[in-house]
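Progress report, Aim 2. The chain analyzed during this reporting quarter is listed below.
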Amino acid sequence: MDIMTDLPDSLLLHIFSFLDTKQLVQTSCLSKKWIDFWKSAPDLNFDFAYNVDENKVMNLLHYVLHGRYDSRIRKLQLSRLRFSTTSKLTRWLTFALERHVEEVHLDSIVYSKIYWELPHFLFTSTVKVLKYKEEYPVTVALKLPNSILKATQLTTLSLQYVRLVPSDSNGELILSCPVLETLSLKYCPHHLRMLNISAARLKRLKIYGYRLIDYTKHHKIKICTPNLISLDLVHPYYNDFYLEDLPSISS
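Predicted structure tokens for the chain:
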């Protein structure tokens, strides 16, 4: 133990970055030096089995996030927590954003058969990377708020195994984040009339396995991204493609 406690803080933080947050907090029992050391870790990773009692999860989240009251959080990852209501999830995301979090990774965190509109503050905050993935089969209907059109910090957006909901009554979903550079949509079924991707700074675009919900309707995709250098379309299932202003594309 003496060897570990004598290591410089920067190296300890790197070693601790490979632990999930529950394990990280438990290190406070191993050394007096580490009692509050976990509060300095820039990344928080909560990963639980699905059958964990939700109250225990809430207590740990409360303890850790409030223990980090005076320190910044670079990355927050929530995996396999299964919140019974999205209001609880929104509460913890709000607290993390008050700590100026830059990356938010959500993996299998919502109960099945639910409609969820992502909180608008995710796109008006310091978040630069947002990744959200559920599990197959797709049961979560996800709506992106209008604030995504004014997301001045978001550079990476990745969605997987969620059903996309139109942003207007015409059945159109517009993705035109002003500074977005990487967009990935994997296995996201929908019944959009039009998917409109017109992000001026977008460089990398991936659309995989876009299964349609209603094959009787006409579905269109429009891509207008002047700085796009990489376009990857795999089984996109669209009737019409409109590719405009792609002078920089190389693959």
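The chain has a mean pLDDT of 82. Residues 1-41 form one domain. These observations will guide the mutagenesis work planned for the next reporting period.
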